[in-house]
């Protein structure tokens, strides 16, 4: 079982590789690169908002964002060869714990409507779809989970 830990700035290159590998299959479906592939993560690492799953190497990442009084699971990425092993579920649980520790009563996220696996994955973890909207040129599906 992978252990979970906070990311350090030296993990940045590996984190970016995991995000690119996890989201690359969706680029053709969406018609452009998914937003997480081009995001800047150093700030989130320095702020202590990045959780990693690690066995012999880092295999997954959860990136949290504070937006006003809300806490969002901004990015969840697991290496394709590790997906389905429970790594993502453990990272989401750790993100929920982080949100609780930081005073949140709910955790929010959005995913792309074309990422159909996510549309069933997050509800299995207790998230409820709240709405859909076009944002930054992407069709987003928004979810919230009460903590």
Polypeptide structure, described:
This protein is 33% helix and 35% strand. By secondary structure, the chain is an alpha+beta fold. It has a domain at 3-104: Aminopeptidase. It has a 4-stranded antiparallel sheet. The protein has a 3-stranded antiparallel sheet with strand order 5-7-6. It is globular and about 35 Å long.
Q: In summary, what is this structure?
A:
GO terms for molecular function: acyltransferase activity, transferring groups other than amino-acyl groups. By secondary structure, the protein is α+β, with helices and mostly antiparallel strands.
CATH superfamily of the domain at 3-104: Gcn5-related N-acetyltransferase (GNAT)
- Approximately what portion of the residues adopt beta-strand conformation? 35-45%
Overall mean confidence score, pLDDT:
96
Helix content: 25-40%
Report low-confidence residues grouped into runs of 5 or more. none
Q: Strand count, sense and closure of the main sheet?
A: 4 strands, antiparallel
Briefly, what CATH class of the domain at 3-104? Alpha Beta
Helix and strand content put the structural class at alpha+beta
The CATH topology annotation of the domain at 3-104 reads as: Aminopeptidase
Q: What does the radius of gyration come to?
A: 14 Å
| Total DSSP E strands | 7
Distance between the termini: 25 Å
SSE series: EHHEEEHEHEE
- The rough form would be described as globular
What is the number of helical segments per DSSP (H or I, 4+ residues)?
4
User: Any idea what the CATH architecture of the domain at 3-104 is?
Assistant: 3-Layer(aba) Sandwich
Strand order of the largest sheet: 1-2-3-4
InterPro entries: Acyl_CoA_acyltransferase, Bact_Acetyltransf, GNAT_dom
GO molecular function: acyltransferase activity, transferring groups other than amino-acyl groups
Domain N-acetyltransferase: 2-147
Keywords: Acyltransferase, Transferase
